[in-house]
Specification:
Two copies of one chain form a homodimer.
Chain A lengths: L17 H8 L3 H8 L7 H14 L5 H7 L7 E6 L5 H16 L3 E6 L4 H13 L4 E4 L10 H5 L3 E5 L9 E5 L1 H14 L5 E4 L6 H16 L9 E2 L5 H13 L6 E4 L2 H14 L6 E5 L13 E4 L2 H16 L9 E4 L2 E3 L12
Parallel strand pairs in A: 1-2, 1-3, 3-4, 4-5, 5-11, 6-7, 6-8, 8-9, 9-10
Antiparallel strand pairs in A: 10-12
The structure holds a DNA duplex (30 and 30 nucleotides).
Chain lengths: ~350, ~350
DNA sequence: AGCCGGGATGACACCGTTGTCGCCGAATGC
DNA sequence: GCATTCGGCGACAACGGTGTCATCCCGGCT
């Protein structure tokens, strides 16, 4: 085996530059640049010499320097801001966007915001300094107006999962309101009259929409909303689990639950199992997840399509970046799919 | 509400540069630079004028230009190469590294390789052109020697989850061999004599180690390895599920299974449930996962500590980047935790 | 033979920042 | 009172590439 030079043996070799390549090939730097960029008007013999010099020196052009001067001004880098890369929904969106970016030769800078508005603002500033071509954002701050200055300088923006506020940009998300109506109606059709809704922070667009959809369904069925408790402000599985347990131990607990996002479903499923109620209380979750089908009972969900959302968002973003789309910003609804697995089909107890 | 200027209204304003700030503040550009970098020898009144000019123009310095000239040569950007950001293990590692990078003002370029060696090489080349300061890599290519040239130019590298080949760099990973031994011994102690091992591609270091650990345990218990089938080459949940089903339908199927990574566990759990064997065949998985405790039976696992692995990897990486650590490259073992939940404690059927 | 067009090429400015260095003026030392 | 320091500041080169433009050369056409 060949001897290995250790990690710490740095500066080592000075990195080759275009000047070194030019000198070795016996040409001017501009000719090297021409070869690198496949520009015309280079004799094939010259081009070959240049390519050999590049290979011999293992030269890789410096994209910072290149972008700095280039007329299109693009860095071929985009930013992705999500709640957390560990959230399965965000991870799927992330992957879809990464794939779309890779096809176009762009790299992705991913940032987890932990649903903190200040981190959204800080992250955007940091990405702006890096001159990313575009940003795909799951908005969390009360307003996205802080992006306007960067947009005036040509930054493209697309919002994912939630509607933006204070700026006019494309948005790609599930039709949360309709999805919530469908899920709630599904429970009501089984005869439930006391349905509980567990929700994320209500300053989020998604939570608002899902609440509206929930109420739409109650209204259509002529149900008194005051019989249907709404528990908002649930940020993670932990707090959701505690909230669900408290709710089920209350006087007149609901006979069915609708969970407004994946982490809430996780917590609620846990709570019901611990209380031994998983076969007595109906449950529909928002967002599909691994093993939803193998739990007992299987968890009925309104599944989002995160890959599709990510793919569409990336397409909009790159269309804006390449200025190939100058239509007015638009909101794109991605459909959801109700998947029946058992938990959502539990009937209310006989009166 | 204020009117919103649409996304497509680009070039719009020319972006302010340090020259604009200098002119507005009535100073030289170098003074602006000094204020920006908190360098000494600027009168406080002057600094204040400069800061006002910065704010007024909403100027954000261009990090590309800055890094290009700076003497330390750092871009404050690192690369992270994983199998896929949708894999929960990778996602946790990703998050830990992102957090460590954020503290140090570095951004993370994440790339999913889909376990494709060629993409590893291509991704490293792309990151090299971007002049990242370091790369955290879950190695997939047969050799990582392709990183040597970049390392000679100062690139820092740390390997995650798997051992590197062909280069000398730090590595942070679980002690797979010991973990596999512990898991296998756990099954053997319950009386199993025919234990099946389901494995990832055997060219991967982790799969090799887990196989060795498995055999170690058999050997120590005096068990004939030929009674214990090994199914390698399982890349995803799908193929694992099919392989597990085929195995259980064979003559003399094993009475216990050990799954060599998270996706294999997912597939195998599915297969056992579909065959109705989940309470008759013991199973231990590698890697913990959401709902492992709520399945029936609960899934016993050897849990890795992905956050810790990511954190330690990032610490090594930044130590190398900052040249604050010049020790020889080192392999760091992160312990695993056997978590008993039921599936691993199922005894073999009475003879 | 002289003119012209265009392919091949390099000199040089430039992108937006930081590093080097020199200049100026005020404070300090003797 | 004069040399010496030093704080404050800007001119200019440099980072590693690309854009612009001038130049050279050669073949084809009058």
């Amino acid at each position: 085996m060949t001897p290995l030079s250790p990690n710490a043996s740095e500066p080592g070799v000075r990195r080759a530059t275009i000047t070194d390549v030019a000198r070795l090939a016996g040409v001017g730097i501009k000719t090297v640049s021409r070869v690198l960029n496949d520009e015309p008007n280079v004799a094939s013999a010259t081009a070959e010499r240049v390519r050999q010099a590049m290979a011999q020196l293992r030269w890789e052009p410096d994209l910072r320097a290149r972008n700095l001067r280039r007329s299109d001004g693009r860095t071929h880098t985009i930013g992705l801001l999500v709640g957390s890369v560990t959230n399965p929904f965000a991870a799927q969106v992330n992957r879809a966007i990464e794939d779309a970016a890779a096809v176009r030769g762009s790299a992705v800078l991913t940032v987890s915001l932990d649903e903190d508005p200040e981190r959204e603002i800080a992250a955007v500033a940091a990405l702006t300094r890096r001159r990313v071509d575009g940003i795909a954002l799951m908005p969390i701050a009360p307003s996205q107006a802080h992006l306007q200055a960067a947009m005036d300088h040509g930054l493209a923006v697309v919002c994912v999962d939630r509607e933006p506020r204070g700026i006019a940009v494309d948005a790609v998300r599930s039709d949360s309101r309709t999805a919530a109506t469908v899920a709630t109606r599904h429970l009501l059709r089984r005869g439930h009259r006391r349905v509980g809704l567990l929700l994320d922070r209500e300053d989020l667009w998604t939570a608002q929409q899902r609440r509206l959809g929930f109420l739409d369904a109650l209204h259509a069925a002529g149900i008194d909303p005051t019989d249907c408790p709404i528990l908002p402000g649930l940020r993670d599985a932990e707090s959701s689990s505690m909230a669900a347990a408290r709710l089920m131990r209350s006087d007149a607990p609901p006979t069915a639950l609708f969970c407004g996002k994946n982490l809430i479903t996780f917590g609620t499923v846990r709570a019901l199992q611990h209380l031994g109620l998983q076969h007595r209380v109906a449950l529909v979750g928002f967002d599909d997840f691994e093993f939803a089908d193998l739990l007992d009972p299987g968890v009925t969900v309104v599944a989002q399509r995160p890959s599709q959302i990510g793919r569409l968002a990336a397409e909009r973003l790159f269309a804006r970046i390449e200025r190939s789309d100058s239509r007015a910003p638009e909101a794109i609804d991605v459909p959801t799919d109700l998947i029946e697995r058992g938990s959502g089909e539990i009937p209310p107890p006989a009166p």
